[in-house]
């Protein structure tokens, strides 16, 4: 199970996303989630593309973790997207990407950004979790895998 509590909310999960290229994936992230952060999609896209120029965020095993720091936001925010068809993301293992977790952080956050990035990478290293994310039928089911509901006490 994942543990991305505090980074992800149910309304920041998309499945069945149609994108044909890395740029289209980043554009969809910007279009879908910029409003949630209160900033223009163009600004978010620019920040993601600038980060991607430094090196691919396709980390392998069909996963990409595009990320950026933005002066305009005041909290770390995560967004999950499952693509209909895998796309070439220039991943380190040359495997096409179908699971995308975007992480955005305030520009002045420092080490907290890196800690959040490490937490996301650790979560997605779990091959069983990734298989379950690929099979999950709804955004709610995906969210429950990434942010497990609190264990309820049996009465």
Uncertain stretches of 5 or more adjacent residues: 151-155
Q: What is the percentage of strand-forming residues?
A: 15-25%
What is the 3D shape? globular
Order of helices and strands: EHHEEEEEHHH
Structural class per helix/strand content? alpha/beta
Plain-language structure description:
This protein is α/β, with parallel strands linked by helices. It has a single domain (10-142), classed as Mannitol-specific EII, Chain A (3-Layer(aba) Sandwich). The protein has helices spanning 22-37, 41-53, 111-124, 127-135, 139-146; strands spanning 13-17, 58-60, 63-64, 67-70, 77-87, 97-106. Strands 1, 2, 3, 4, 5 and 6 form a 6-stranded mixed β-sheet that branches. The two termini are 24 Å apart.
């Amino acid at each position: 199970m994942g543990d991305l509590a505090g980074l992800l909310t149910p309304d920041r999960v998309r499945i069945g996303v149609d994108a044909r290229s890395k740029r289209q994936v980043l554009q969809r992230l910007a279009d879908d989630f910029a409003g949630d952060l209160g900033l223009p999609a163009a600004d978010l896209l620019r920040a993601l593309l600038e980060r991607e120029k430094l090196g691919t965020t396709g980390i392998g095993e069909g996963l990409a973790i595009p990320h950026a720091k933005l002066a305009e936001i005041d909290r770390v925010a995560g967004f999950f997207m499952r693509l209909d068809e895998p796309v070439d993301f220039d991943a380190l293992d040359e495997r096409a990407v179908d699971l995308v977790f975007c992480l955005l952080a305030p520009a002045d956050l420092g080490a907290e950004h890196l800690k959040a990035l490490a937490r996301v990478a650790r979560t997605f290293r779990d091959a069983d979790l990734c298989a379950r994310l690929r099979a999950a039928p709804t955004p709610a089911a995906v969210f429950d895998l990434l942010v497990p509901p609190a264990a309820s006490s049996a009465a």
